[in-house]
Design a protein that fits this description.
The chain has 14 helices and five strands. The chain has helices spanning 29-40, 58-73, 78-87, 112-122, 144-155, 175-179, 191-202, 210-217, 221-229, 234-244, 251-263, 266-290, 295-318, 322-339; strands spanning 47-52, 93-96, 132-137, 161-167, 182-186. Strands 2-3-4-1-5 form a five-stranded parallel beta sheet, sandwiched between helices. The longest helix has 25 residues, at 266-290. 32% of the residues are buried.
């Protein structure tokens, strides 16, 4: 069977291999060992939910797991399976993603027609012995109709078929879908594992700012790779320094920073937003663990988290002034720091 052409979605980085092309698992060993043990004992659940931050390696994990399951139950050697999966030609693997939208680009969501197409293909005679696996990357992209159609499939799944659902926001899933799956949470990785994944993805080349890339990643490998691909890191360095500094800067500092972010490339703007949200999340986790009795700080950081997320979402949805959005969030961060 000939390989399918690789068409990348806009958020799939051009410089690195797709998840189905990855060959090595770095981190997340506990989840992997648990699922492989179940596969060997023929006790795999019919639906598996992998959830955690976007860019943490869930999709790569899903494809590596699928290839191992195929090898355990199929009649081909591992290298043949790996090659076919990487080329998109393994007949027992089904992938549900956003589909191309003619004449260019992609649909903004997974539609019911996409789900029905996968379902139709599953009804055909299987191409190989062993399990069939459907990877949904990601379930968050499904619109309401697609989610309902998937729920019906999960309630009455095809025989010997395993569904692997990937979610960056499990709280937004239909409770009925959640209840049909065995859930596996994915946590951020330590800096050495992030560095290892970055080296695998980009090749172990010298990068003058690799340490700041790792720091900006905050445990999320994709962010380290994105940072390493930027032509200039000075803006993100300035943002990281401003966020983590204990000094109170000139009132003009965060105004200039907001203006510089707005003037930057779209990918850098998105990255800057992620850095800001990660900083707030890190502060919240620290307070919850180290000083949980300080209710004023807990309430303040929780309010800041909600405000920043809501403002970024509203700015994107309603095309609000980006600079003013950032300035308002920076002002709120300054107020939070003054409580410390």
């Amino acid at each position: 069977m000939s390989a399918k052409p690789i068409i990348r979605e806009y958020e799939q980085l051009e410089a690195i291999a797709l998840p189905e092309q990855r060959e090595v698992l770095v981190g997340h060993k506990e989840n992997y060992s648990s699922l492989i043990a179940q596969a060997k004992n023929k006790k795999l659940p019919g639906a598996i939910l992998l959830h955690g931050q976007r860019g943490i390696g869930k999709a790569s994990f899903a494809f590596l797991l699928a290839k191992e399951i195929f090898a355990l139950g199929g009649d081909e050697n591992k290298s043949q399976i790996d090659e076919q999966v990487a080329q998109g030609s393994y007949p027992n693997l089904f992938i549900l993603r956003k589909t191309p939208k003619p004449p260019k680009g992609f649909y903004s969501e997974i539609r019911i027609t996409d789900v029905r197409e996968i379902q139709k293909r599953m009804q055909k005679t299987r191409g190989r012995a062993g399990h069939r696996i459907c990877i949904i990357d990601s379930i968050d992209d499904c619109n309401q109709k697609a989610s309902n159609a998937l729920l019906k499939i999960l309630e009455e799944p095809p025989s010997d078929t395993i569904f692997i659902l990937i979610s960056h926001r499990p709280g937004s899933l239909l409770p009925t879908i959640h209840s049909r799956c065995h859930s596996y949470g994915f946590r951020t990785l330590d800096d050495e594992k992030v560095r290892e994944i970055t080296n695998i993805a980009l090749g172990k080349t010298e990068h003058n700012d690799i340490d700041i890339c790792i720091k900006l990643a905050n445990g999320v490998p994709r962010r380290a790779i994105e940072a390493a691909l930027f032509d200039k890191l000075s803006l993100l360095k300035d943002l990281e320094q401003w966020l983590y500094s204990n000094d109170f800067h000139s009132p003009l500092t965060h105004l200039t920073l907001a203006e510089d972010i707005v003037k930057s490339q779209a990918a850098e703007q998105v990255f800057a937003h992620d850095v800001i949200i990660s900083y707030i999340g890190e502060q919240a986790n620290f307070i919850a663990k180290e000083n949980p009795i300080n209710r004023v700080q807990l309430a303040s950081i929780t309010k800041l988290w909600e405000k920043a997320n809501n403002m970024f979402a509203s700015s994107q949805e309603y095309n609000l002034d980006k600079k003013q959005t950032l300035v308002s969030i920076f002002d709120a961060i300054i107020q939070y720091k003054q409580l410390l």
